[in-house]
Every structure is written in structure tokens, then in C-alpha cells.
Amino acid sequence: MSSPKGSQAQKTRLPSFTRKVPLEVPSPTEKDWSKDDEEDYVFKDPDEELDSLPQPYRMINKLVNLLFDRSWEVIEERDALRKSELSRIRPTVYPPVVESKLNKMPNCMAISQDYVFIGGARGFSIHSLFNAKQIYVWEKLKVDVTSICATDLGSEILIAPVDEIGIVRLFYLYKDGLCLIKAINEVEDTSKQSTCLKMEISQGGDFAAFFLQGAGDIWLDVYKLPKESWLKEVEHPQLSINPKKKVRQLQLNTLDAMTSDNLEM
User: Fold this and answer.
1) pTM
2) Paired sense of beta strands 123-128 and 115-120, if any
3) What are phi and psi of 229, to 5 degrees?
4) What is the DSSP string of 37-94?
5) Of 192, 174, 159, which is closest to residue 231 (Cα–Cα)?
6) Helix (H, G, I), strand (E, B) or coil at 7
7) Angle in degrees, CA 213, 215, 217, rounded to 5
8) Does the CA dihedral 135-249-150-186 come out positive or negative?
9) What angle do CA 259, 262, 265 make, to 5 degrees?
10) How far apart are CA 78 and CA 54, in angstroms?
11) Stretch among 41-50, 53-62, 153-162, 194-203 having the lowest mean pLDDT
12) Where are the beta strands (DSSP E) in 129-176?
């Protein structure tokens, strides 16, 4: 048993091991708390943690997540593209002034002044550009018109349709009146019939050139177009011409034809 003196000595030594510092009481407000402690601790809800899936479900989960991520990237790219297209200035859309239905399938078309010339079965037709109204129809061929050309002569228009056989004709349109000038390469003997390969009319309609082919040869025909005489004929028609006949025959002056030997092909 310990003596009363020994126990009393131990009791007297205890105060020497205590730290004589005042105790700190934390502030009741959160703003005075140290922020360093908050960064060191991460609070997690144990109910929100996901358990690791076993194979092969873990691999399936990764594939599904990968597919979702790539799909979302595609969606974002398409959305960005759509926004960029909407931000662009759209061109002005001009609706047609007038629409007109055609009874036959057209093969070619040309525009000059206020008219549109449509080539099709057995001939061609002339329409107004303002109301698409059909002004004139010339259908006297047994074949279709495959190409048509219209040249502005000022107050008149020179029309040159080419049919399937290769025959080219010149027409003269003046004040809604149509005049046939000439069939350039039409002959009575079909064995000697030539074909028009290419044609061009100069600006202003002073000259017309035609590439023709027949019997193994190719040559160039150049015509000087007497526009002044045509204008006089239509303004002052001869008494012998029937005024009720809309299509009249006009004269055409021709230059010396240039053969293929004189051409640098």
C-alpha cells in the first residue's frame, strides 16, 4: 500500500504537465472558420456512390457511355452548323411573274427583247415575257425543231430554228408579224441534202454564218443580211402580196461561199 505522503507527492506533480494557455472557443459564424480545412475534406453521400459493375457489364457500360459522348458531339456540331447557316444572309428569292402550262414537250428555247421563242414538235411558238401569252405559232414541219436562235435587230428580231434533219430557216419578226426569209440549206433532192452543224449571227444582225456538211464535205456559208430592205418590205408590202397572209417571203443576199479548202480547221 502506498503511503499518504507518496500519493500526495504525485498529486502535486500533475499540474506541471498541463499547458497553461487559454482555451479558444470557435466563433459561432461560418465566415470566421478556416478555409484550409474545407479544402482538405470532401463530403460524399454514401447513398450516391456507385458500386463497381462486374464484367461484362462494366465493358457494356463503357461502350454505352462512349456512344453517348460521340452522339452528343455530333449533335453539338450539327447545332453549331445550323446556327451558322441561320446567321448567314439568305439570298432574295424571286417568284415567277407568271406561269404558263405548255401542251407539248419543248426541245429548245431562246429569249430576245420581250419575247421567248420555244422550239418543239413541227415548229416553234412565240410567247410574251410579260404575261406568257402565246402570240404566234409556226408549225409547218414534219419533224421537230431541235435548236433555235434569236437575235435582236433593234425594233425587229431575227429567228433561226434548226430541225432534226439539219435544215436551218431564217424568220423575221416585226410588230408581231412573222416573215419567212429563207431556208438556208433545203433542196428538193433529198440525196443532196446538207446538214447544218453550227450557226452564228453577228451582233446587230449584219452577217450570218453557217457550217454545213454533206456528201463528205464541210463548208462555210456567210450571208449578208439586208436588214434595211427587209424593213422597207414589211412597212410597205407589195400589192401582189396577200395582206392576210402572216408569213411572207423576204429576199436574202449571199456572199461567196467559203469551201473547206479555204478554212484552217
Assistant:
1) 0.57
2) antiparallel
3) -70, -35
4) HHHH-----TTTPPPPPPTTHHHHHHHHHHHHHHHHHHHHHHHHHHHHHHHSPPPPP-
5) 174
6) helix
7) 50
8) positive
9) 95
10) 36
11) 41-50
12) 134-138, 145-152, 156-163, 169-174
pLDDT in tens, 116-150: 999 999 899 999 988 888 888 998 888 999 999 99
The amino acid at residue 12 is T
- Give the side-chain half-sphere CA count within 13 A for 158: 25
Q: What are phi and psi of 47, to 5 degrees?
A: -75, -20
- Spatial separation of the C-alpha atoms in residues 137 and 100, rounded to whole Å: 15
Show the cell assigned to 15: 499540474
SS3 95: coil
The residue whose grid cell reads 411558238 is: 125
Amino acid present at 244: K
**Spatial contact of 167 and 148, defined as CB atoms under 8 Å apart:** no
Task: State how far the Cα of 207 lies from the Cα of 255, in Å rounded to an integer.
Answer: 10
Residues contacting 116, CB < 8 A, separation 6+: 109, 110, 126, 127, 128, 129
Sequence-ordered list of residues with C-beta below 8 angstroms from that of 209, at least 6 positions apart, any chain: 199, 200, 201, 202, 220, 221, 222, 223
